[in-house]
Task: inverse folding
């Protein structure tokens, strides 16, 4: 193998180049019959000045663009528009802009799948427990002689063969959790949020999701008015504040699980973000989620230290 | 509810045993008949009426236990005793007997039933006096007493199923009841009107209105958010429909043409007045403008009267303009525009296309039928449901034969004959 490579060092490169050109031709000629895994990736990019300005989440770019057709995504930061709503009236208050790598990532199903499997493994209790033969209480006396009884050979009465004996290779409490690179998991978080954004199922609320009344009836009326309930695919409400600061909300939604759920930002995981019809999230909660899941975007501490 | 017939009630039997006169000669050996033969109205002692007080019959319960000979005298006596007890006529409490027939505390609805009782009473008394014939009329009498138990005689319909009946006692019901007792808050409506406009012409009119208002304010240099502020003065802007909107020369903005020069100042004044009042108005509260109003606008003008040529390319990529237009459009039409739609939309032509686009079909069959291409193919059939073996048999006319054969053998169970 090595000799052949040495004999013709450029052969592999040439082969690869020819292969890619063929593949590109083929792709260009045949129509695309299947949907790509990264669907809906066309970005109509705003102006560069606007984009850089809007990397800061609270800024409101004043510059205007006239581009009407979607263009290929340029390298560098961009921003997507979101409406910030009031609650519970859901009046549009203003536009805010989020970086594309926060809320407009391509939908990577493989990454979402890995994150959900990772979370599922992590969530497993793993408490199944049985007694093996040495853990069963009892004597180690031989049940009957080795030979001459006409019956099977047996050791003590705790043998896995016997009723009341131990379990052979039975389950013991263990940790089922698997590993996933932090950067992949963080990307999955932002991919899940981006998926919601692309489908128009991410509603960002300015202040707090706290309700004025703690009754389930009131919450039902809110859900019905905004079409958030069961007929419209249920809703997940994510709060920034802890439960004791949103008592009315959590109390009201406690009795209407068929209409939706409320969770604090610390309780949410990727699977929750993908489960229901839409996500209603406090602006603060979204900021905290994004801040907590951007290790693949920021430089590591070690590198920063080295640079200093 | 099954009712125990009156004479079987123990109190009646007891009464019968000691009230029956020895000399009473009744033709009937039946205990019941003998008991009924006693003429109640003639008896004077109140204990005669004990059975009546225990009865659930309306007629019998109406009989008072004690009837004073001279009611006026009795009332005067009662008053004097009460005055002594309470220390003066003014302080007397509870003078009204709530159980009295004329008491103001009685439920007014019961009056009708009482009148009926009054009307029936003389007949019943006569019946009772004709004691000898009573045994023969027993069945009839029991029939008439049954009628008395239904307060809404003639209108009452017995429910065969529980559908439509009020449910009482569930967990939800208890919760709702407690909320009602507490007087909980109600969420009336959100910022958007509850009904969406779906008529394309009305949507076009709403978009025109939003664009005209926003660009007028932009021209004057006022706050664009004023358009979607809640106020009644917006109704006065009826002339907005006669305004023509077209693109500006550079294509970045819109030109709003007023048919009359006073109109522009009018709209500005109206919105200025609105700005003053809206400071005190809660912005959270719901707007007055509904889809009904927007749809009423469209009746008078057509699309060509509203727009100038090339209006679809009017740009709304300025974030402030875009926000004002989007917000006003949401308010007028009831359509919530999602973030990616807003992100991708840069002209009002795109915006109109988005809101007038028909909703995505929920079922595959709806999509196929709407498309129509497959239906044109001769060897393809589109069915809304799964095609079962029975459907196939029915199609070739074999189902009837099969059913007949099965029925002949007594095997067709539960199928409609």
Result:
């Amino acid at each position: 193998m090595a000799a052949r490579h040495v004999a013709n060092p450029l052969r592999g490169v040439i082969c690869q180049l020819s292969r890619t050109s063929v593949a590109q031709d083929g792709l260009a000629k045949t129509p695309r019959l299947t949907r790509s895994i990264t669907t809906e990736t066309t970005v109509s990019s705003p102006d560069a000045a606007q984009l850089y300005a809007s990397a800061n989440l609270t800024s409101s770019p004043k510059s205007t663009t006239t581009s009407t057709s979607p263009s290929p995504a340029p390298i560098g930061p961009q921003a997507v528009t979101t409406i910030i709503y009031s609650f519970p009236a859901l009046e549009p208050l203003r536009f805010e802009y989020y970086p594309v790598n926060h809320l407009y990532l391509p939908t990577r199903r493989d990454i979402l799948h890995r994150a959900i499997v990772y979370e599922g493994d992590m969530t497993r209790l793993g408490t199944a427990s049985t007694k093996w033969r040495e853990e069963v209480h009892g004597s180690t006396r031989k049940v009957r002689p080795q030979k001459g009884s006409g019956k099977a050979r047996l050791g003590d009465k705790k043998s896995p063969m016997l009723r009341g004996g131990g379990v052979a290779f039975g389950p013991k409490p263990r940790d089922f959790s698997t590993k996933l690179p932090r950067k992949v998991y963080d990307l999955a978080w932002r991919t899940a949020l981006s998926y919601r954004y692309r489908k128009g199922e991410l509603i960002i609320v300015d202040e707090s999701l706290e309700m004025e009344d703690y009754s389930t009836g009131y919450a039902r009326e809110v859900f019905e008015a905004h079409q958030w309930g069961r007929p419209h695919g249920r809703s997940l409400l994510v709060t920034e504040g802890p439960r004791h600061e949103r008592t009315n909300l959590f109390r009201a939604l406690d009795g209407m699980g068929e209409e939706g759920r409320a969770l604090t930002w610390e309780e949410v995981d990727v699977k929750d973000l993908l489960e229901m019809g839409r996500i209603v999230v406090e602006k603060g909660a979204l900021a905290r989620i994004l801040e907590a899941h951007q290790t693949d975007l920021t430089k590591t501490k070690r590198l920063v230290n080295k640079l200093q | 509810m099954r009712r125990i017939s009156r004479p079987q009630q123990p109190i009646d039997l007891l009464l019968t045993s000691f009230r029956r006169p020895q000399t009473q000669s009744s033709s009937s050996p039946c205990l019941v008949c003998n008991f009924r033969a006693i003429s109640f109205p003639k008896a004077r002692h109140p204990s005669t009426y004990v059975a009546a007080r225990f009865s659930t019959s309306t007629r019998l319960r109406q009989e008072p236990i004690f009837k004073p000979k001279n009611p006026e005298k009795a009332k005067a006596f009662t008053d004097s005793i009460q005055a002594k007890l309470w220390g003066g006529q003014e302080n007397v409490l509870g003078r009204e007997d709530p159980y009295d027939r004329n008491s103001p505390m009685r439920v007014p609805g019961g009056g009708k039933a009482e009148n009926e009782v009054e009307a029936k009473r003389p007949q019943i008394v006569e019946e009772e006096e004709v004691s000898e014939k009573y045994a023969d009329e027993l069945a009839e009498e029991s029939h008439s007493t049954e009628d008395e138990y239904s307060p809404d005689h003639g209108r009452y319909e017995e429910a065969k199923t529980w559908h439509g009946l009020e449910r009482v006692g569930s967990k939800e019901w208890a919760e709702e009841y407690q909320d009602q007792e507490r007087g909980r808050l109600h969420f009336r409506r959100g910022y958007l009107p509850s009904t969406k406009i779906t008529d394309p012409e009305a949507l076009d009119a709403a978009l025109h209105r939003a664009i005209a208002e926003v660009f007028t304010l932009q021209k004057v240099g006022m706050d664009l958010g004023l358009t979607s502020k809640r106020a009644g003065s917006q109704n006065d802007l009826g002339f907005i429909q006669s305004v023509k909107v077209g693109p500006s020369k550079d294509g970045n903005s819109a030109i709003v043409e007023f048919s009359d020069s006073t109109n522009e100042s009018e709209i500005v004044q109206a919105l200025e007045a609105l700005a003053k009042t809206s400071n005190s108005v809660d912005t959270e509260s719901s707007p007055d403008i509904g889809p009904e109003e927007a749809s009423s606008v469209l009746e008078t003008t057509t699309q060509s009267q509203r727009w100038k040529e090339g209006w679809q390319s009017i740009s709304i990529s300025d974030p402030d303009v875009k926000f004002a237009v989007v917000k006003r459009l949401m308010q007028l039409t009831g359509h919530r525009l999602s973030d990616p739609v807003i992100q991708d939309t840069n002209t009002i032509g795109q915006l109109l296309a988005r809101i007038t686009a028909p909703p995505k079909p929920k079922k595959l069959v709806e999509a196929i039928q709407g498309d129509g291409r497959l239906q044109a193919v001769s060897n393809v059939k589109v069915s809304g449901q799964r095609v079962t073996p029975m459907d196939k048999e029915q199609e070739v006319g074999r189902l009837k034969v099969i059913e007949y054969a099965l029925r002949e053998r007594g095997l067709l169970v539960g199928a409609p004959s």
Q: What stands out?
A: Chain B touches chain A at residues 175-176, 179, 182, 184-187, 189-192, 194, 251-252, 283-286, 313, 315, 317-320, 322-323, 326-327, 330, 338-344, 346-347, 350 (CB under 8 Å). The two ends of chain B are 37 Å apart (CA to CA). DSSP finds 19 helices and two strands in chain B.
